[in-house]
Write a structure and sequence with these properties.
The complex is a heterodimer of chains A (574) and B (181). By secondary structure, chain A is an alpha/beta fold. In chain A, 56% of the residues are buried. The radius of gyration of chain B is 19 Å and the shape is elongated. With 181 residues, chain B is of the alpha+beta class. In chain B, a hairpin with a 3-residue loop joins strand 6 and strand 7. The chains are: A alpha/beta (574), B alpha+beta (181). The interface between A and B is medium-sized, with 35 and 27 residues.
Chain lengths: 574, 181
């Protein structure tokens, strides 16, 4: 018998997860992780059985983004572990706190190319904040405690803990207090220098045409109230990044809308004409800056981000502050002068008027169903209160343009990595994290076919997600690029789909098909009323494109606008 | 323009992989990277000579600081420092030039550590520039083999302390005493 107070390594994993406040893990069993699954039966933590390990990471990602808690994934060695890589990269680029636990072959077999052995710690170095190879039971608790601390601290991100089978099977005592993590504290950014704060204040004071660039970091920092307070006090409008949508309310009078490649023309123009940019928790990604040399040429720039390596990376700035955004803004706020910038706001409003040409949502219904209709109506029908989880491509941009996100953590999407297949599993994770929320999947016909096996997970786990498939019969965003930049040669972009209604039925899920705008509201109502998951296929205009668009490598103000002929004929000339 | 970085890390297997992976992925052009033990048994010290402009070097420093295993990164460029490199070079020495080669070696205060019938091996320690000069002066005779350690650097005057209060590394990894975080 074992000594009193001792646990198997497998038990220590669950004991650690309990103490970290974990209520749900997403995973898939296999040989090298079997001891841990066997021990799971003694614990109350919910396990969600996925259909593919990549989906487990996306679910944990959705869970974490919807709730702000750390998402947890469990998988076995070899292919189980390698299937996590895309999900880890997705979480890494979008700063999602995750802990992935993988089984590994016994320590005596390490390095021998044993069955289902891969060097997952070697493979995942570039896509994790840190990772661990644990070969002894007594190292499990310190490694897991530190993994959670690293995942949460600073700029959050994924951490992988690879645990050999013999470490799961052998015994050790549990000393939680002795395992208090410290190394994540090595890189906590210093408090901002008073000189930097003073210079930032001076720039705000002098600015005539300032714009706040609101990013994902606002949500990660929990700085919504501070950003709004500063914007209102100094009368500064804010433009949002894709992941910043929802960080501050879209319907706020100072909200301009999304910036960047598919941002609103007036937003990009405001950035190009601004004399001061206040970049809050964003990283000047190429999708928001366009051509760097011509980006915001008249603007002084203040950049606040907790990750010092993001400062002066793409865009050189005048004031760079590596710190928690909320803390900096709390320090700045009392000093920020109350201002009236109605002249500047009025100018932007005028630009906005000019840009409404592309706005097809108000066009008369001409018998064509446009994705924009679907997004706009979905926004109205859900009163803008749903958590929408989008996949990657045209529908993702249309959703960002037409669904106005007011609530925090109300849009979950793969921004940095652009991972197709993300939406359905991430939505399942989001719904599990926030069961009271209405969760909608918005996916294209291409991306949905990558991970639709998770429909069965939603059935088995009784997770109600509503699914809107925007089916245009193409890998639409790629088709759009082929139309614009490859002379219309549609190489490998026409894509067939199964009968999605029958497919849903095969999973035991009610499925509907909508082909005209008139049928949309009733279908959405039926989906919302369904007890479990429900699917609607929207057959939309096949060759519609996302406008406006800044071509890759062009300056931000050089936008391609929706050809006006569409407004007259309803057919896309592209 | 070469910049000298001194990086203190946990003394664990795998740390060098993390640093090398970062340098490769971010495309930082390095001249040399050396790693070895320090006055503290739990720490390693790396000297990295980065061949890049100042903004790129600043990026490299910030990225290195994000590694959990990195305790501290110092950029030595802005203060006096000692930089030392060691070279072993085997020079072809036909009978008629041997004394000339030996004299040149003396000028560089280099030691002759091996003499064969038609070649000698010279060992020399010094600044990067001195080693370069020695190598250049030997080139006309014919360099048969050459190996350099890469630079090890230290600030002059004030002690550059190893980061204090370093948390004890986690024991994780393969082998009885090994760790490979």
């Amino acid at each position: 018998m074992s000594e009193p107070g001792s646990f198997t390594g497998a038990q220590l994993i669950w004991e650690s997860l309990l103490r970290e406040g974990v209520d749900t893990v997403f995973g898939y069993p296999g040989g090298a992780i079997l001891p841990t699954y066997d021990a799971m039966t003694e614990y109350t933590i919910r396990h969600v059985l996925v259909r593919h390990e990549q989906s487990a990471v996306h679910m944990a990602d959705g869970y974490a983004r919807a709730s702000g808690r750390v998402g947890v994934v469990v998988a076995t060695s070899g292919p189980g572990a390698t299937n996590l890589v895309t999900g880890l990269a997705t979480a890494m680029l979008d700063s999602t706190p995750l802990v992935a636990i993988t089984g590994q072959v016994g320590s005596a077999l390490l390095g021998t190319d044993a069955f289902q052995e891969v060097d997952i710690t070697g493979i995942t170095i570039p896509v994790t904040k840190h990772n661990y190879l644990v070969t002894r039971a007594e190292d499990i608790v310190p490694a897991l405690r530190e993994a959670f601390a690293v995942a949460r601290s600073g700029r959050p991100g994924p951490v992988l803990v690879d645990i050999t089978k013999d470490a799961q099977q052998s015994r050790a005592t549990l000393d939680w207090e002795a395992a208090v993590p410290q190394r994540h504290l090595r890189h906590i950014p210093p408090t901002p220098k008073p000189a930097d704060l003073a210079q930032a204040l001076e720039l705000i004071r002098q600015a005539k045409r300032p714009v706040i660039l609101a990013g994902h970091g606002i949500q990660l920092s929990g700085a919504r109230a501070e950003v709004l307070a500063l914007a209102e006090r100094a009368d500064i409008p804010f433009a949002l990044t894709l992941l910043g949508l929802g960080a501050v309310p879209a319907t706020h009078p100072l909200s301009l809308g999304m910036m960047g490649m598919h941002g609103e023309a007036w937003v990009n123009r405001a950035i190009q004409e601004a004399d001061l940019l206040l970049a809050f928790g964003m990283r000047f990604d190429d999708r928001v800056t366009g051509k760097l040399k011509e980006y915001a040429p008249h603007a002084k720039k203040i950049h606040i981000d907790i990750d010092a390596s993001e400062l002066n990376k793409n865009v050189p700035v005048d004031v760079a502050i590596a710190a928690d955004l909320g803390a900096v803004l709390r320090a700045l706020l009392p000093e920020v002068p109350v201002a009236d910038r109605s002249a500047w706001l009025g100018t932007i409003r005028e630009w906005r008027g000019d840009s409404a040409v592309r706005d097809i949502k108000n066009l008369p219904d001409d018998g064509h169903l446009y994705a924009a209709h679907v997004m706009h109506d979905l926004w109205r029908l859900t009163k803008g209160e749903a958590v929408v989880v989008t996949d990657v491509g045209q529908h993702q941009m249309w959703e960002a343009q037409y669904y106005k996100h007011d609530g925090e953590r109300s849009l979950i999407t793969s921004g940095g990595a652009g991972t197709m297949g993300f939406a359905l599993p991430a939505a399942i994770g989001a719904k599990i994290a926030r069961p009271e929320a209405e969760v909608w999947v918005v996916a294209g016909d291409g991306g949905f076919q990558m991970t639709f096996a998770e429909l069965m997970t939603s059935v088995q786990e009784e997770v109600k997600v509503n699914i809107a498939i925007i089916n245009n019969g193409y890998l639409g965003m790629v088709r759009q690029w082929q139309a614009l930049f490859y002379e219309g040669r549609y190489a490998a972009t026409p894509i067939l789909s199964p009968d999605f209604v029958k497919l849903a039925e095969a999973f035991g899920i009610p499925g509907q098909r909508v082909e005209t705008r008139g049928d949309l509201a009733a279908a959405v109502a039926r989906a919302r009323e369904a007890r479990g998951a429900a699917l609607i296929e929207f057959k939309v205009e096949q060759e519609d494109s996302v406008y406006p668009m800044v071509p890759a490598g062009a300056a931000l103000h050089e936008m391609i606008r929706r050809p006006s002929v569409l407004a007259e004929t309803g057919s896309d000339p592209v | 323009m070469p910049h000298v970085l001194v990086v203190y890390t946990d003394d664990e297997p795998g740390v060098l992989t993390r640093v090398a992976s970062l340098i490769r992925r971010r495309g930082f052009n390095i001249h040399s990277l050396t790693v070895g033990p320090t006055e503290r048994s739990d720490l390693s010290r790396m000297t990295i000579v980065v061949d890049a402009e100042a903004p790129t070097v600043r990026q490299a420093v910030e990225h290195l600081r994000k590694l959990v295993n990195v305790l501290a990164v110092e950029q030595l460029g802005d203060r006096p420092m000692v930089v030392r490199d060691l070279v072993l070079v085997r020079v072809a020495t036909a009978h008629e030039v041997r004394s000339e080669v030996l004299q040149l070696a003396q000028v560089f205060r280099a030691a002759v550590v091996d003499i064969a019938e038609d070649s000698i091996v010279i060992e020399c320690t010094g600044s990067l520039a001195k080693i370069d000069a020695l190598v250049d002066s030997m080139r006309p005779f014919g360099i048969l083999e050459l190996g350099r350690t890469g630079a090890v650097a230290m600030a002059r005057g004030t002690r550059t302390p190893a980061p204090s209060r370093a948390p004890v590394p986690l024991r994780t990894g393969t082998g009885p005493e090994a760790m490979s975080v």
